[in-house]
């Protein structure tokens, strides 16, 4: 399928390397800033109310039990939970970069995508091209290349406005009801945003 697409002169596609981790993280931050809807006033209000309630409960417990007793009660579980969260985040990110493919132009990463392959299917995530490199075929080449590498079927979710882009590359809409709960979870269904599940067979 990549025979139908070409990269601009000077661009190469390759698997991500450990040295790409920081740049990939920066690309993903840009990606999320572009696609995530801004937090609504109602969400901000709910967050403030939740923090206020937690603070109120903490003050009440502190006054009822005494600060030393409250500290003794919460210190151990707090440390365990905190270390667990840090360990999970570290382990998760340490292995994630290995699933990425990147397009590089003169040692600068200009596009990335994550291909997670399982025995019976694959998942495509985080397809992102820097704004100044769009409409030059990089996204099409990257998706087509990973489509060739993937164990089929290859699933992804996209914003409604990108459905036609992926359909031109051979993907077809698939009903959420036909997806296993594990695939739905891996694709982030349901999530904060409206997304369309697609499949390449």
CATH architecture label: 3-Layer(aba) Sandwich
Give the SSE order as H and E letters. EHHHEEEHEHEHE
Enumerate the spans where pLDDT stays under 50 for 5 or more consecutive residues.
none
Major sheet, described briefly?
7 strands, mixed
Helix content: 40-55%
- Total count of strands: 7
Number of domains: 1
Amino- and carboxy-terminal Cα gap: 13 Å
Number of helices: 6
Quickly give the structural class.
alpha+beta
Proportion of β residues? 15-25%
Calculate the mean pLDDT score and round it.
Answer: 86
Shape: elongated
How would you characterize the overall build of this protein?
The chain has 201 residues and is α+β, with helices and mostly antiparallel strands. It has a single domain (10-151), classed as 3-Layer(aba) Sandwich (Aminopeptidase), CATH 3.40.630.30. The protein contains six helices and seven strands; from the N terminus they run E-H-H-H-E-E-E-H-E-H-E-H-E. It has helices at residues 21-35, 41-65, 67-96, 138-149, 163-168, 181-186, and strands at residues 11-15, 100-105, 108-117, 122-129, 154-158, 172-173, 196-200. Strands 1-2-3-4-5-7-6 form a seven-stranded mixed sheet, with helices on both faces. A hairpin with a 2-residue loop joins strand 2 and strand 3 (108-117).
Task: Give a short summary of the structure.
By secondary structure, the protein is an alpha+beta fold.
Task: Record the SSE blueprint.
Layout: E1 11-15, H1 21-35, H2 41-65, H3 67-96, E2 100-105, E3 108-117, E4 122-129, H4 138-149, E5 154-158, H5 163-168, E6 172-173, H6 181-186, E7 196-200
Helix pairs in contact: 2-3
């Amino acid at each position: 399928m990549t025979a139908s697409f070409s990269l601009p002169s000077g661009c190469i596609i390759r698997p991500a390397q450990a040295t790409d981790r920081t740049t990939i993280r920066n690309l993903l931050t840009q990606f999320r800033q572009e696609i995530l809807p801004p937090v609504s006033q109602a969400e901000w209000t709910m967050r403030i109310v939740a923090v206020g309630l937690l603070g109120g409960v903490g003050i009440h417990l502190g006054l009822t039990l005494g600060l030393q007793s409250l500290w003794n009660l919460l210190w151990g579980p707090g440390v365990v939970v905190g270390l667990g969260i840090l360990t999970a985040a570290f382990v998760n990110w340490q292995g994630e970069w290995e699933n990425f493919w990147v397009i590089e132009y003169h040692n600068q990463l200009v596009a990335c995508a994550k291909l997670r392959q399982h025995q019976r299917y694959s998942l495509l995530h985080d397809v992102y091209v820097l704004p100044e490199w769009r409409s030059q075929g990089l996204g099409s080449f990257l998706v087509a290349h990973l489509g060739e590498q993937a164990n089929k079927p290859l699933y992804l979710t996209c914003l409604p406005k990108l459905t036609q882009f992926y359909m031109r590359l051979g993907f077809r809409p698939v009903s959420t009801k036909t997806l296993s709960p594990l695939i739905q979870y891996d694709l982030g269904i349901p999530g904060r945003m409206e997304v369309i599940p697609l499949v390449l067979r």
